[in-house]
């Protein structure tokens, strides 16, 4: 008999609901959940082929370990593997202190997995060295929200797409990266042909091609554009001065700054027409205006300022907290939001608390029943692997992510993994570049097997349910952490029992209590309510009968005086600049049918129909100048590394710009993958690295 199980798609932050069809404990099909408010039954190519990715031949099925780096790993028992990990971590902590160990996690983990990892590091071990691949993805969006609105909370919701009159899409190829949102945008445009869609992107992506106005700005010039739009709206009398006066601080300083950003100056910086800047500003100023943005803003050394400069536009026009209006960051990974809710990053604490805040630290310590949580900030992703390389972090635990593919400046990361004294990798897949560095490899459950909850881009929490049993000796991520933590408590002779959990519901309920009174208060939610009434948006306080579709409708922000803060952002440019030696811009991004490092999508043959192999896309102008024809093999290089791959003529990139997708790694190309070339430079506030842009040279082979 075919069993149907409601769950979510495990790819992107749209968070589509799925119904998994299984028979005899095997996943045989997947359909969109018609009742899920993120997708109403629709799925993109990735989501609709999820069942084809549910194979065992690419899975880690048994624990493996090695006691000597010169020896291959061998199959081991869970007891042997976890006891070895406990002994190595305990000895390292005792000898070098808690900050000599670190955990590097993933936005793919469920909220409950994240919660126990965070508690293990900050509550039991006493280190804030917990960071995740969300640092590479959403941390500038987080910082942008916090510095302007006071909390890491996207104010808008998907329904706003249906109500907006101006949709500003910045740094996002939504058609490829968030396809189901894009379907909704297409439907909104069809219903309301007056809806103006403005796309800000150096590339002429599918999203840009369908826009009413494409602002093909030069890489990294977003802040100049947003300041220029504000300049025009100021000049045209399109600002909402009553809103600015009543609900914000800092406009006078910003006004002085944007006075300089004339359309002429901005057109020169951004490489676009003055008239287009004016048109975009007028459309935005008229409203209601919704902006959707993603990695083009976030993955930048000025990511926080890019986010803030865009949010400035909303605050200055009062385009926030009402239907069809607001800034709306599109989350990359399925549960980056849930991870942040439990404080699963080096700078955060549970319930959207800040590590730097002594009161917040005391609150979390009390909730956990521990003496204190450590004050010293943990290492963010780039800092963490740097610390591993220079030896201050000696043991690292990597779960559900593949930093040997996804981090920038990959050669440096590989050196770090080589240098580490002890590496634990906890993963479902056996085809990752990171796996080969594991001293202990722990088999984890994955999509279709896991249970817990996730939060999508619009703050909506959905239950994730298992359709089939976990294969062989794999275990749930949270179970692995709890088992390790309990053993470590005993080994360190800690007189505590911080990890009494036997179900994910117990973990969810404890997490729920940490949100009481906070901006994301979910004390009114339970597994039972989510099961019975379906996915819900936060906040959802005790006594509430529904969550909040949009935030800040009352003009009260999460700042001490309740007022939002304008940020005086100025244009600064990219980390790497083109010059005579490296004359071409290299941009990176996603393809429609692949996901991140392809550990899952790489196993589905039909997902290669859209793009079979990695290529570098080039303009006709650049190909002609170098006598390169379509399909010619070229070497792409800069000071950090080189790749060899075919060239492809593309009308999507401008002259002097090139594009390589992020998905292929060392296993499928000559070279480590495009991230090997990317700079390790990061935004000083968000610590998010600039994974979108570098400068390269190119030679025909
Ligand atoms: Fe999955 Fe994202 Fe596609 Fe929805 S849009 S089916 S969440 S990959």
Automatic annotation (TrEMBL):
Cofactor: Mo-bis(molybdopterin guanine dinucleotide); [4Fe-4S] cluster
Molecular function terms from GO: 4 iron, 4 sulfur cluster binding; metal ion binding; molybdopterin cofactor binding; oxidoreductase activity
Domain 4Fe-4S Mo/W bis-MGD-type: 2-58
Keyword Iron appears in the UniProt entry: yes
Alphabetical keyword list: 4Fe-4S, Iron, Iron-sulfur, Metal-binding, Molybdenum, Nitrate assimilation, Oxidoreductase
Entry superkingdom: Bacteria
Entry's Gene Ontology cellular component terms: membrane; oxidoreductase complex
Gene Ontology biological process terms from the UniProt entry: cellular respiration; nitrate assimilation
Record keyword Glycosyltransferase present: no
Family, per entry: Belongs to the prokaryotic molybdopterin-containing oxidoreductase family. NasA/NapA/NarB subfamily.
Official protein name in the record: Nitrate reductase
Species in which this protein is naturally found: Methylotenera oryzisoli
Covered residues, full protein: 1 to 701 of 905
């Amino acid at each position: 008999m075919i069993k149907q199980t409601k769950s979510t798609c495990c790819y992107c932050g749209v968070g589509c609901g799925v119904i998994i069809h299984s028979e005899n404990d095997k996943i045989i099909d997947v359909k969109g959940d018609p009742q899920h408010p993120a997708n109403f039954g629709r799925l993109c190519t990735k989501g609709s082929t999820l069942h084809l990715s549910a194979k065992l031949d690419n899975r880690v099925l048994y624990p493996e370990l090695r006691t000597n780096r010169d020896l291959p790993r061998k199959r081991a028992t869970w007891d042997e593997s976890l006891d070895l990990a406990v002994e190595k971590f305990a000895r390292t902590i005792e000898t070098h202190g808690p900050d000599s160990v670190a955990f590097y996690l993933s936005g793919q983990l469920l909220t409950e997995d994240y919660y126990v990892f965070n508690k293990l590091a900050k509550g039991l071990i006493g280190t804030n060295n917990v960071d995740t691949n969300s640092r590479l993805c959403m941390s500038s969006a987080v910082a942008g929200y916090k510095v302007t609105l006071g909390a890491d909370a996207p104010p808008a919701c998907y329904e706003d797409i249906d109500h907006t009159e101006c949709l500003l899409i910045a740094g996002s190829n939504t058609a490829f990266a968030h396809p189901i949102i894009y379907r909704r945008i297409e439907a909104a445009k069809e219903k309301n042909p007056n809806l103006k869609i403005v796309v800000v992107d150096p590339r002429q992506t599918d999203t840009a091609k369908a826009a009413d106005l494409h602002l093909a700005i030069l890489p990294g010039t977003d802040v100049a554009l947003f300041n220029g739009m504000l300049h025009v709206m100021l000049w045209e009398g399109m600002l909402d001065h009553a809103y600015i006066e009543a609900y914000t601080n800092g406009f006078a300083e910003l006004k002085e700054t944007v006075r300089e950003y004339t359309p002429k100056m901005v057109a020169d910086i951004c490489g676009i027409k003055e008239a287009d800047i004016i048109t975009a500003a007028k459309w935005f100023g008229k409203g209601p205006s919704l902006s959707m943005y993603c990695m083009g803003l976030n993955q930048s050394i000025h990511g926080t300022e890019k986010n803030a400069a865009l949010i400035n536009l909303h605050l200055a026009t009062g385009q926030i907290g009402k239907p069809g209006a607001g800034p709306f960051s599109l989350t990359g990974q399925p549960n980056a939001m849930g991870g942040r809710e439990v404080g699963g990053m080096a700078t955060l604490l549970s319930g959207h608390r800040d590590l730097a805040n002594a009161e917040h630290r005391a609150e979390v310590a009390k909730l956990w029943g521990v003496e204190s949580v450590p004050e010293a900030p943990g290492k963010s992703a780039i800092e963490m692997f740097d610390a591993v390389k220079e030896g201050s972090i000696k043991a690292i635990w990597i779960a559900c992510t593949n930093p040997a593919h996804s981090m920038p400046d990959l050669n440096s990361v590989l050196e770090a993994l080589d240098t580490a004294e002890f590496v634990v990798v906890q993963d479902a897949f056996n085809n990752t570049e990171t796996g080969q560095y594991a001293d202990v490899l722990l088999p984890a459950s994955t999509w279709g097997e896991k249970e817990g909850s996730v939060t999508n881009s619009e703050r909506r929490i959905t239950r994730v349910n298992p359709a089939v049993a976990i294969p062989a000796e794999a275990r749930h991520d949270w179970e692995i952490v709890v088992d390790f933590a309990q053993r470590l408590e005993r080994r360190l002779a800690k007189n505590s029992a911080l990890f009494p959990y036997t179900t994910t519901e117990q973990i969810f309920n404890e997490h729920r209590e940490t949100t009481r009174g906070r901006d994301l208060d979910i004390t009114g939610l339970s597994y039972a309510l989510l099961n019975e009434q379906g996915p819900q948006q936060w906040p959802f306080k005790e006594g509430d009968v529904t969550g909040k579709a949009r935030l800040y409708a009352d003009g009260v922000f999460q700042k001490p005086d309740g007022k939002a803060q304008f940020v005086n952002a100025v244009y600064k440019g990219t980390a790497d600049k083109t010059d005579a030696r490296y004359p071409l811009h290299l941009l990176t991004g996603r393809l429609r049918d692949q996901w991140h490092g392809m550990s899952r999508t790489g196993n589905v043959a039909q997902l290669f129909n859209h793009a079979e192999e990695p290529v570098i896309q080039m303009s006709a102008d650049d190909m002609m100048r170098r006598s390169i024809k379509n399909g010619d093999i070229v070497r792409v290089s800069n000071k950090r590394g080189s790749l060899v791959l075919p060239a492809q003529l593309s009308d999507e990139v401008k002259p002097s710009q090139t594009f390589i997708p992020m998905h292929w790694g060392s296993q499928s190309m000559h070279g480590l993958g495009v991230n090997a070339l990317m700079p390790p430079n990061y935004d000083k506030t968000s610590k998010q690295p600039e994974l979108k842009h570098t400068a390269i040279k190119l030679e025909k082979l």
